[in-house]
Amino acid sequence: MSHLLILGGGIAGSSLAYLATQTGHAVTLVDAGFESSSSVPSALLNPVRGQGGQVVERGLEGMRFTWSLLENLERQGFAVPHARAGVLRPVPDQKTFERWQGRIPEDLPHRWLEVPDLMGQNVQGQNIQGHWFKVLEVSEGGWLDGNAFTRALREASGARVIRGMAEKWTSKSATLEDGTRLEADGVVWCGGSWGAVRANLTSPHRRGSVLLLEKPLSKIPVSFGIYSAPSARGGVLGATYETPTSLWTPAGLPLKSLEWLLNKAAHTFETLEPEFRGLWTGSRLGGEILCGPRADGSFILSGLGSKGFLLGPLLAQDLLERMGI
What we know:
The protein has a single domain, classed as FAD/NAD(P)-binding domain (3-Layer(bba) Sandwich), CATH 3.50.50.60. By secondary structure, the protein is an alpha+beta fold. Helices cover about 25% and strands about 30% of the residues.
């Protein structure tokens, strides 16, 4: 049995911890517990991304892997609010429809829906505006509670969890800010936007915000530019819309962004009478996904951006195999 030291307790680090302990390895997880984008109250599992309809490489595989982990956690008694009822992607016009058609592989379960069939159903249905040309249903997609899923992975792992921040590390050890030195057979950095400067990463940081609603705008997640989905306590309306920056920025929702979000929502949904109950905001580390060895002999899994729950667990499994764990 080997001992793995994981720095960062978001979706990447918690997935690594869970998967490593499932094969009999000891894990120590160091987590600052600050500014984790993995705590999002409703995250979409959707491999068809962006307004261009691009299908994420290994997206279907990653989505199914995440769902399988969630099923395992439920069998162990962990409650993770979620729904695997699909994700709806409205398409604005014939040209976009044809472009998306050419990009979606045959092995991705999906179907095209007519907009009139979805209109006028409000919260009991999908509440789609009539101007959309078609709606793509990603059949195996859905939403999950990011905070509950990440916490369940961490708790189910049985890993030793230390609250703190790593100041420096090597392939076999890490020193925390308070001077504590931890040793292990392998070290993996899984920090995100807030801790990226400590790992000398230059990836862009992008803040996103989610408005918390008393009731969902639709019973099935809807996504095109913005997204709305159910959640454990009602629903959410949000997007990653702030301009990428070179450094982490503190939480906040500029009024111009709120106006942009609500205008997009009015363009998307037939009925828009949201009852707000709060705000969630977090910063993601974007750019290239980093999964593999570093020059110092340690390993890294970071830069997942908005694809954390779609690809994070799958890439954690890949990394463990590369490490021989």
